[in-house]
User: What shape does this take?
Amino acid sequence: MRAGTRDTVATDGAGAGAPDVNADADAVRPWRQWAAAAVPADRAEAEAGVRLAYRRAGLAEPERIVWAASPREGVEVVRGLTDAGPSVREAVRTGPWARERARMLVELGPTGWSAHWSATGERLWNVTQALVDRVRRGVLEELAGDDRRLETETRLILLDAVLGQHDAPWLAALPTDRAPLDGLARVCRSAGWWWPFAKVAVVCERPVALHRDEAGRLDRGDGPALAFPDGFALYAWRGMPVPAAFLDELSTLTPERIRDEENAELRRVMLEHYGYERYLEDSGARPVHQDETGTLWRITLVGDEPVVMVEVVNSTPEPDGTHRTYWLRVPPTTMTARQGVAWTFGLDENAYAPLRET
Assistant: This one.
């Protein structure tokens, strides 16, 4: 399969090139899949891509290619290299990318390039970059800990990596079916992060598991949200990093355990998992205000702002005749149910006057 930007370019009245936005959107789909691939690397294809990337940069192919099971192991392998020669990342990745981007900027013009980027790489950038940042933090935490010298060394190695599958956003915006980016694209489609040196290339496996929520954040309540073959893993709940042991507790939570949690962020995760309505019921909470709009509840938490929610009942019945109850999180300063409901509509309490409840 060959993927990349389409070469057909329309011309606007001013003579500047304008991309075919629909074609761009179609071209993004496979890059999204490659960026999120959680299957074993195609090692033969990845190695062919590495060698091609070296040739495109005018370099001799690496004498050997070493595989690592994760970015964590990749950093350890790079740290232990003694005969790899200098890094050639600038020649293999940074230079070709910069030249192709500059060429397309001239071809499309600033406005055309902005529209093209919005229709291609930008669609993948935020989610993919957040994942890259999280992997880097995870590797730093495991390999460096509180050692400042080791942290600096590890950070520099991580920043020197070519991102393989996670280079998909910018590759989606540039032509990848020809020189100089076709080698980099082959690695992106086939493997994870990699480090190019004059004599040696270190290439990482892709993850074996990736779980995200609808917003693209790492999210899993019963295991690692991101896992690699060697056991390197990241745990998260709706994007927030959590300890592995923390998830084991979620199925046995009690109101007392939630109140006793000292970490405010973890306590919020516990509340979300347990359910606010269930917590209110099980903890014997009492409503603090009630009017025709609903019922206001307040959960006091030690060392954290209170959780304030409005309980409202949908006036429109369900097909079975019941009325659904909704719980609306409102600011801690909310004093009445009406004020809380008005806030959800972006209104002041005095301005909230619905003509008809729905």
Observations:
- Residues 89-119 form the longest helix (31 residues).
- The first strand starts at residue 9 and ends at 11.
- Residues 1-17 have pLDDT under 50 and may be disordered.
- The two ends are 51 Å apart (CA to CA).
